[in-house]
TrEMBL record:
PANTHER family: PYRUVATE DEHYDROGENASE [UBIQUINONE]. Residues 381-527 form the Thiamine pyrophosphate enzyme TPP-binding domain. Its EC number is 1.2.3.3. GO terms for molecular function: pyruvate oxidase activity. NCBIfam families: PRK08611.1. Pfam families: TPP_enzyme_C (PF02775), TPP_enzyme_M (PF00205), TPP_enzyme_N (PF02776). It comes from Sporolactobacillus shoreicorticis. InterPro entries: DHS-like_NAD/FAD-binding_dom (IPR029035), POXB-like (IPR047211), THDP-binding (IPR029061), Thiamin_PyroP_enz_cen_dom (IPR012000), Thiamin_PyroP_enz_TPP-bd_dom (IPR012001), TPP-bd_CS (IPR000399), TPP_enzyme_TPP-bd (IPR011766), TPP_POXB-like (IPR047212). This is Pyruvate oxidase. Residues 194-320 form the Thiamine pyrophosphate enzyme central domain. Residues 5-121 form the Thiamine pyrophosphate enzyme N-terminal TPP-binding domain.
Length: 576
């Protein structure tokens, strides 16, 4: 009977699970795992990043895009701590992630050794599976359990691995561990389906709210909306569940959403929630009936008073409804929504036609769209870039749109694009970030260069934390601590070995984007955008309007330059 190192057995197991990547940084307490990856000439490609946060954010993005487990690795202590942000992104956006972190040798645990951090304690809140490996024999078995749990619970499984244990030897003829995983999907309950059908048939103003959980059911969702002639609004991460140019699409809901979506909600008598845990109740109908479809029973009725809950997979549930609801060919409510939406798109088009310098973010989105491909993956960052991308970028069902939706962490754009290009080398990957967000992870542009991942990073450079400035103003405060010095990100791109374009004038925008598209290397487009562009909500609430009034008064009273606000006419016409 031969012997094999536990770490080598684990590498084989990861391969058997179909894992093709690990994002991370090697180091002493995790060296045995890394050595096993090298020695086994594994099919798993190791992507060495420059900061562990990028490793875990990339792993989360990989999982959002593929549905498969994303994997990141780091040493214990500081490396493990750096991973936390991306781990929370996976936890909060409910995607499976496996995290392998090193640990000081088992025999030294508790001795206040160098870099000794109790990682099991550290990861308690973030993980659905969180164990320290205690023996070489159990190591592969525990890894196998970790992966299964991450898939089933759609969360983070983390293993703290003392390096001396990973190096330990185990028998090479241990029974092979099964990598078959049968995800538990709740079966549909006939009675609930019947009740849902009855409710849908009796509604006059039904509105569909599709979340990220409806993205596996795009075809069914489209057919459903067409069959019952109902408008479809989407949540932020649900963008792309139905194409933005579908005639029944009424835009996003919420602060970053559209006025027609807000009004459709307020005039609806039946809300049909599909795969969404949308949290902002103020944007939902008041007192309408509700059908909610969700794979997770805990989510039924969590945010809105539900009349009929359907627990199950969105694709299956909608397919049933499509076969059983009475078709509606003409619905006045949909017609009204469509006419409002036509006006909304006209306004958006007007915004996007601003051929001004400094460049309007709205026009930038239109230019990005012009170089996009049928199946482009957009990795959108957090900040005003979220608002501009969500509102102005038309995304189709074939494209992908990912963002850190619940954690809302800045810096997710670049790691998401890296993961997108690694997972789908033939698809165009575009990151859209503000300069504040990009600067949080910018060191890892060099990772894209090193691994020849030809991504396009578009930076909306306004030398400030514009979203925070906007928040300060709408709270009636004056702008404070939100300005940055200028960085020439195009020069930075070149210093990293990629391509860079600094775009300061509107006329240079389109040519630069076209060159970026044509270059087969990682590119940064550093676009100097209008610092005064305000990311106004689709519907201003009274508190915000009052906040602006206070900000204006304060600006004048304290003799500050009043920052340019959009003409009041526009605000009134579009948003109130
Ligand atoms: P989740 O909360 O992840 O819910 C998905 C649901 O789908 C879950 O309940 C899950 O159980 C279910 N599900 C999964 N798979 C299936 C399946 N196969 N079948 C059926 N069900 C399934 N969001 C907005 O919508 N509007 C805003 O204005 C807005 N502003 C934001 C601004 C910023 C700067 C940021 C960072 C975020 C913003 N968000 C906004 C995002 C917001 O925080 C929430 O993350 C988002 O609204 C939740 O969207 P969701 O319900 O689609 O996703």
């Amino acid at each position: 009977m031969g012997k094999v190192k536990a770490s080598e057995a684990v590498v084989k197991l990861l391969e058997n699970w179909g894992i093709d990547h690990i994002y991370g940084i090697p180091g002493d307490s995790i060296d045995s795992m890394v050595e096993a990856l090298r020695k086994e000439e594994s099919k798993i490609k190791f992507y060495t990043v420059r900061h562990e946060e990028v490793a875990s954010l990339a792993a989360a993005a990989y999982s959002k895009l593929t549905g498969k487990i994303g994997v990141s690795l780091a040493i214990g202590g500081p490396g493990a701590i750096h991973l936390l942000n991306g781990m929370y992104d996976a936890k909060m956006d409910h995607v499976p992630m496996l995290v392998l972190v090193g640990h000081i040798p088992a025999r030294l645990t508790g001795t206040d050794y160098f870099q000794e951090v109790d990682t099991v304690e550290l990861f308690k809140d973030v993980a659905v599976y969180n164990k320290k490996i205690t023996s070489a024999e159990s190591f592969p078995v525990v890894v196998n359990q970790a992966i299964r749990t991450a898939y089933q619970e759609r969360g983070v499984a983390v293993l703290s691995i003392p390096d001396d244990i990973a190096m330990g030897e185990i028998s090479d003829n241990a029974p092979q561990l099964s990598t078959v995983f049968e995800k538990k999907v709740p079966g549909l309950v006939q009675n609930d389906l019947n009740n849902a059908v009855a409710l849908i048939n009796s509604a006059s103003n039904p509105v569909i709210l599709a979340g990220v959980g409806a993205k596996n059911a795009k075809k069914e969702l489209r057919a459903f909306s067409e069959r019952i002639s109902a408008p479809v609004a989407v949540t932020l991460p649900g963008k792309g569940a139905i194409s933005d140019d579908h005639p029944n699409f009424i835009g996003n809901i919420g602060k970053i959403g559209t006025k027609p979506a807000y009004e459709a909600m307020k005039n609806s008598d039946l809300l049909i929630m599909i795969g969404t845990d949308y949290p902002y109740a103020a944007y939902l109908p008041e007192g309408a009936k509700c059908v909610q479809i969700d794979i997770d029973p805990i989510k039924i009725g969590k945010r809105y008073s539900v009349t009929v809950g359907v627990v199950g997979d969105a694709a299956e549930a909608i397919a049933y409804l499509n076969d059983h609801v009475t078709p509606v060919n003409e619905r006045p409510f949909l017609k009204t929504c469509q006419s409002k939406m036509a006006t909304w798109w006209k306004w958006m088009d007007e915004d996007q036609e601003k051929k001004q310098t400094p460049i309007a973010p709205e026009a930038l989105m239109s230019a990005i769209e012009s170089i996009s491909e049928d199946d482009t993956i957009y990795s959108v960052d957090v900040g005003t870039s979220t608002v501009w991308s969500t509102r102005y970028l038309k995304v189709s069902e074939k494209q992908d749109f990912i963002v850190s939706a619940w954690l809302g962490t800045m810096g997710c754009g670049l790691p998401g694009a890296i993961a997108a290009k690694q997972a789908f080398p033939d698809r165009q990957a575009i990151a859209i970030s503000g300069d504040g967000a990009f600067a949080m992870v910018m060191q890892d542009f060099v990772t894209a260069v090193h691994y020849k991942l030809p991504i396009i990073v578009v930076i909306l450079n306004n030398k400030q934390l514009a979203f925070i400035k906007y928040e300060q103003q709408s709270a009636g405060q004056l702008k404070y601590a939100v300005d940055f010095g200028d960085i020439d990100y195009a020069k930075f791109a070149e210093a990293c070995g990629g391509k860079g374009f600094r775009v300061e004038k509107y006329d240079d925008l389109q040519p630069a984007l076209e060159q970026a598209k044509a270059s087969n290397v990682p590119v940064i487009l550093d676009v100097v955008v209008d610092v005064d562009a305000a990311p106004l909500p689709g519907k201003i609430v009274m508190d915000e309007a009052k906040g602006y009034a206070r900000f204006t008064a304060k600006s004048i009273a304290e003799n500050h330059k009043l920052e340019k606000m959009p003409p009041m006419k526009t605000v009134v016409r579009r948003f109130l």
